[in-house]
Specification:
90 residues; alpha+beta; Outer Surface Protein A, domain 3; two-stranded antiparallel ribbon; 3 helices; 42% helix; globular
């Protein structure tokens, strides 16, 4: 998988948002919010190839979660990111 090239993660206050930087104007319809955990994964894997297993490993190393819980969370996150067009699934 790989993140879409023209997307940028921004932190505004305590919120993380992905914005499309392809155009000069930001269309607020195309802003996606993320929690801190999703933002960590985005920052870790942005603009490089990655696998689901790598994402799970990051969660297990960073947080006190089981492999099973991390896998479930990552699977759901990947589905969301693909449906919103944030990543490509090669």
């Amino acid at each position: 998988m790989r993140t879409k090239e023209d997307l940028t993660l921004r932190k505004i206050g305590n919120k993380y948002m992905i914005v499309d930087t392809l155009t000069e104007e930001i269309n607020m319809v195309d802003v996606y919010t993320m929690n801190e955990t999703a933002a960590l994964l985005w920052k870790t894997f942005n603009k490089r190839n990655f696998t689901q297993e790598e994402m799970v490993n990051v969660l297990c190393n960073e947080y006190e979660v089981t492999q099973e819980q991390a896998t479930n969370d990552v699977e759901n996150l990947i589905k969301d990111w693909i449906s919103y067009g944030l990543i490509y699934n090669d």
